[in-house]
Amino acid sequence: MGHRWTVRVLGPVDVLTPYGEVTVGGERLQAVLGALVISVGHAVPVDRLIDIVWGDAPPRTADGTVQSYVSRLRHVLGPSAIARIDHAYELVADAEQVDAVMFEALTAEAMDAADDPAKRRALARRALRLWRGVPFGDLADRDPFRLEALRLDEMRMTVMELDLRAGLDLGRGELLVGQLEAAVAEYPYRERLWYLLIEALAGDGRRVDALRACTRLRELLAGVGLEGGPQLRRLEQLIARGEFRRNGSSPSDAAAER
């Protein structure tokens, strides 16, 4: 299948064509397209689409209206892009034609590039560039888009951490401190971000700031009844003795496995 269009859901739902962006509106039409994206490569029963679009109060004409919505989507994507299979519809697309699918593929590649930080960082940044806002836009607070948006956003955080970890592995910690400070302020309970910040500060020779960050993390965890654990104690000891070195595995890696 040629790459003629891309359905984008990592932000407001729309379609990118060779001629530019095409807004898919209104909300019900977006819901049909979004539901097909979530199950791309698999048929979605018409009854399921009706439930997603109208909930418990569908009109008597719902079946025909869904057919009309699919016809409008085919006008944008092409007649073969949405297949009719019995009483169901399926979005037929390559990975490159759905931004969420491409994002997941790039994420998997980045995670597999554990021994090549430059490649890992390049892949992570390609993945992050696909994001334009809250997944599914105005649909994000509705089922089934709510759970899918949360899943994708959690994956986005993982990719961001992969990017930052790769930056540290490439010896660019001094350039990441500001970004990491902002990250821990926005996501204070993601321990891995704190460990990355501490390592960036220590690697830049800012031992006092690194130890203060350790204290901030310990106090934050204590506020919710948790302890920093052996990883944090070990890192503090290494920094205090001036023995911190980047050498493969790290407290941030261990925190990700907890």
Walkthrough of the structure:
The protein is mainly alpha-helical and 258 residues long. The chain has 11 helices and 6 strands. The strands form 2 sheets. It has a 3-stranded antiparallel beta sheet with strand order 1-2-3, with no helix packed on it. The longest helix has 25 residues, at 145-169. It is elongated and about 75 Å long.
Structure described in brief:
The protein has 258 residues and is mainly alpha-helical. 58% of the residues lie in helices and 8% in strands.
Summarize the amount of helix as a percent range. 55-70%
Cα gyration radius (Å) = 23 Å
Q: Report the order of strands and helices.
A: EEEHEHHEEHHHHHHHH
Number of strands: 6
Amino- and carboxy-terminal Cα gap = 42 Å
- Which structural class should the secondary elements be placed in? mainly alpha
Strand content: 5-15%
Shape: elongated
| Uncertain stretches of 5 or more adjacent residues | none
Give the strand order of the largest sheet, numbering strands 1, 2, ... along the chain.
Answer: 1-2-3
Report on the biggest sheet.
3 strands, antiparallel
Count the helices. How many? 11
Mean pLDDT: 92
